[in-house]
Write a structure and sequence with these properties.
The complex is a heterodimer.
Chain A (H helix, E strand, L loop, with lengths): L7 H20 L3 H30 L1
Helix pairs in contact in A: 1-2
Chain B lengths: L15 H13 L3 H5 L3 H20 L12 H15 L3 H8 L10 H28 L5
Helix pairs in contact in B: 1-6, 3-6, 4-6
Classes of the chains: A mainly alpha, B mainly alpha.
C-alpha cells in the first residue's frame, strides 16, 4: 500500500471536497440544487479553514 | 400561555422488502444502493467520493477504531469511531481481513487518515439514509 504524505492544507481541502460532494448529492432534490449546495458547502469549508488558520496563528502570538 | 402542538403526520413504515436490499447494498458498497435504484449519476459520485476518501485514509496510515469501554469519553470515541468505520461496509471488512488496518501512531498525517476513514463511513451512513428515503418513496 503506497504511503500518502499530505500537508494540513492539502488534507483539509481533500476532506472538504469529498464531504461536499456527498452532502450535495444526498441532501437536495434537483441536480441544480445539489450542485449549488455542494459548491456552497465546499466554500464554507475553505472559509472556515482559512478563518480557523488565521485565528490559531494570531492566537498563538 | 397556551402552546400549540403541531402534530407531525407519521408516515407508515414501508415493508422491509422494499428498502432492505437497497439499504444492504448501499452499506456493503458505497453508492451501490443508488445504482440499484437506478440513480446512476448520484451512485457513481457517492461510490467514487467515499471509496477514494477511504483509500486516502488508508494510504495516510490511519488507524481503525476498536470498541472499548472505560470512562465516558473513551467509550464514546472508540465505540463511535468503530461504528463509523463499520459503516464503510465491504471496504472496512476487506481492510480488516487483509490486515491493512494500522496501529494507532502519533503524527498529523496518521491522525488525518483516521478521520478520513471514520468520515468515509459516516458519509456512507448519510448515503444509506438517502437510499432508504428514495426506496420508501419519500424522496425523488
Amino acid at each position: 500500500m503506497p504511503k500518502m504524505n499530505l500537508s494540513h492544507f492539502e488534507a483539509s481541502i481533500l476532506f472538504a471536497l469529498f464531504t461536499s460532494v456527498v452532502l450535495g448529492v444526498v441532501t437536495k432534490h434537483t441536480d441544480r440544487d445539489r450542485l449549488h449546495y455542494g459548491i456552497y458547502i465546499f466554500v464554507c469549508f475553505v472559509v472556515a479553514l482559512f478563518g480557523m488558520g488565521w485565528l490559531m496563528f494570531l492566537g498563538h502570538g | 400561555m397556551a402552546k400549540e402542538k403541531v402534530k407531525e403526520e407519521k408516515q407508515p413504515m414501508p415493508p422491509l422488502g422494499v428498502w432492505g436490499p437497497a439499504l444492504a447494498l448501499g452499506w456493503l458498497v458505497p453508492g451501490a444502493g443508488h445504482l440499484f435504484l437506478k440513480r446512476t449519476g448520484r451512485g457513481i459520485l457517492l461510490l467514487s467520493s467515499i471509496t477514494i476518501m477511504f483509500l486516502c485514509g488508508l494510504m495516510m496510515r490511519g488507524a481503525m477504531f476498536q470498541p472499548q469501554t472505560g470512562d465516558l469519553l473513551t467509550t464514546l470515541i472508540n465505540t463511535g469511531g468503530f461504528i463509523g468505520d463499520l459503516c464503510s461496509g465491504l471496504l472496512y471488512l476487506l481492510t480488516v481481513a487483509f490486515g491493512y488496518n494500522q496501529p494507532d501512531m502519533a503524527g498529523a498525517v496518521h491522525d488525518y487518515g483516521t478521520k478520513f476513514l471514520v468520515a468515509a463511513g459516516l458519509l456512507n451512513l448519510l448515503a444509506m439514509v438517502d437510499v432508504f428515503e428514495i426506496a420508501a418513496g419519500r424522496k425523488d
